[in-house]
Design brief:
This protein is of the alpha/beta class. The protein folds into two domains: 216 residues, no CATH class; 206 residues, Rossmann fold. Helices cover 32% and strands 20% of the residues. It contains 15 helices and 16 strands. The strands form three sheets. Strands 12-11-10-9-13-14-1-15-16 form a nine-stranded mixed β-sheet. Strands 3-2-6-7-8 form a five-stranded mixed β-sheet, with helices on both faces. Helix 1 packs parallel to helix 2, helix 6 crosses helix 8 and helix 7 crosses helix 8. The relative contact order is 0.15. The C terminus is likely disordered.
Length: 452
């Protein structure tokens, strides 16, 4: 069986600025809207982006604030074609985020019908949710962050994108992606958002920014006409806080799980440096020669978009994939590479061997990094060859050694041995969990930590 090089557990020092009371922050922002007349108004609270820290809490806070002012809020799934492009599928996705009618305190109206709002300067129609248009007001709630499909300097994912693609449901999302394939994402998003902002009734937004540990760190309540100007500094902050892999040159990246709750592309292209067309991202921090993806998150509901961005995947990940949901998402986004089924084998040993072959490197000198997912970069397993680069001052991000070099083995079945699985052992002892900064601590297999 393949012999793995020895491994270390690294603790990466990420930007950490968590809000003590996110609900209070949002309420303070909403107070700037107190002068508006809310009594008796039907207000759509648009939710839908995956993996946002405290999204159910924020949604419940907005709904509660509206009710206190006599409004009649309801939840509108604003997620384009996700959930298989059906009302039932979108309601199920919201439930997986902890958003149900009971938990949020408002009904959910998930109709997929759209209406045309106008035509952009590029000549394509802008379509928006009919449910949103029939409301007296709309409050978008979305995270502002770098997009996975394009390397925007001033615009990524956020309120402007939700205006066109999220509120556009399946029809509007497809129209936007079609136009973006010809005119570029940033230009199209801005063009669509300008028309939507002008036509939607009483539009507002709650913008959310997460820190490097995937915790909510900043919020802003904006009026629709201010989206374009005021989203930019939030985006710049999100870019500054976004984590990265600690090495510039990586032979094999092992990703334990991908999923739509992790990233729109299953694994964040801004982290891996590999775009949805499989070419290197222009703004990449790392060159990764081969990627091995091991599994799919339960919260992804079978959507295995991103499976094709890995060079090798486990057969388990293939079995977890729901082709209908995955392909619906891919066709809407007009991306053929992310849903493709990559080379796959039933064991970790066979998959790692294949990834090493693709990278063209021998195991004992391979620079291998292993992460839980692209949202959890505070705890990273690294091979000894990576440690040599770090010790020589070659890290591009600040890291500590939490566990010194120890054996990394496969079990009798050819999978990572639980007895030497540093990520699993670390989690058992309160280490890396998505959305939580992990302390530097020693496992039983390690001597004291070191810092660079």
């Amino acid at each position: 069986m393949l012999k793995l090089p020895r491994q270390l557990l690294l603790h990466q020092r990420l930007a950490s600025h968590p809000l003590v009371d996110p609900a209070a922050e949002v309420r303070a922002g909403l107070a700037t809207l107190d002068d508006d007349d809310w009594a008796g108004r039907s207000v759509a609270v648009a939710l839908g982006s995956r993996g946002i820290d405290r999204i159910a809490l924020i949604g419940r806070t907005v709904v509660g604030w509206l009710r206190e002012r006599g409004a009649e809020p309801f939840v509108l799934p604003a997620m384009g074609s996700h959930g298989g492009g059906t009302p039932e599928g979108q309601i199920d996705l919201l439930a997986s985020y902890g958003i149900t009618e009971a938990s949020i305190g408002a009904p959910i109206r998930a109709g997929m019908e759209t209406r045309e709002l106008g035509v952009t300067p590029f000549g394509f129609p802008v379509r928006t949710s009919a449910v949103a248009l029939d409301a007296d007001g709309v409050i978008l709630v979305n995270r502002v962050k770098p997009h996975t499909d394009f390397a925007g300097v001033t615009l990524g994912s956020g309120l402007l994108k939700m205006c066109g693609i999220g509120l556009g449901k399946a029809d509007g999302a497809f129209a936007c992606h079609l136009a973006a394939s010809r005119h570029g994402h940033e230009a199209v998003i801005r063009a669509v958002a300008r028309i939507a902002i002008a036509k939607l009734p009483r539009l507002y937004g709650v913008a959310l920014v997460e820190d490097g540990t995937h915790r909510l760190a900043r919020t802003a309540v904006l009026r629709g006409e201010a989206f374009e100007d005021q989203e930019r500094p939030l985006y710049e902050q999100a870019r500054e806080w976004m984590p990265k892999l600690p090495l510039a040159e990586i032979d094999v990246l092992v990703v334990d799980e991908i999923g739509k709750d992790i990233s729109g592309t299953g694994m964040d292209t801004n982290i891996t440096g590999r775009g949805v067309d499989l070419t290197p991202m222009a703004n990449r921090h790392a060159n990764v020669r081969a990627i091995y993806a091991r599994g799919l998150t339960e919260a992804s509901h079978g959507n295995a978009i991103g499976i094709g961005l890995a060079d090798v995947v486990s057969s388990r990940l293939v079995a977890q994939m729901d082709p209908v949901i995955t392909y619906t998402n891919a066709l809407s986004a007009m991306t053929s590479a992310p849903p493709r089924i990559s080379i796959n084998f039933p064991t970790d040993a066979a998959c790692v061997r294949a990834a090493l072959r693709i990278a063209g490197v021998e195991p004992e000198v391979a620079r291998i990094l292993r992460i839980r997912n692209t949202l959890a970069l505070d705890r990273i397993v690294a091979s000894e060859a990576c440690h040599e680069v770090i010790a020589a001052g070659g890290a591009i991000a600040p890291v500590d050694v939490a566990v010194d070099a120890t054996e990394w083995r496969f079990d009798a079945e050819g999978n990572f041995d639980p007895a030497t699985d540093l990520i699993a052992l670390d989690r058992e002892r309160g280490g890396a969990v998505v959305g939580q900064a992990a302390p530097v601590h020693d496992l039983e297999v390690s001597p004291p930590s070191r810092r660079w």
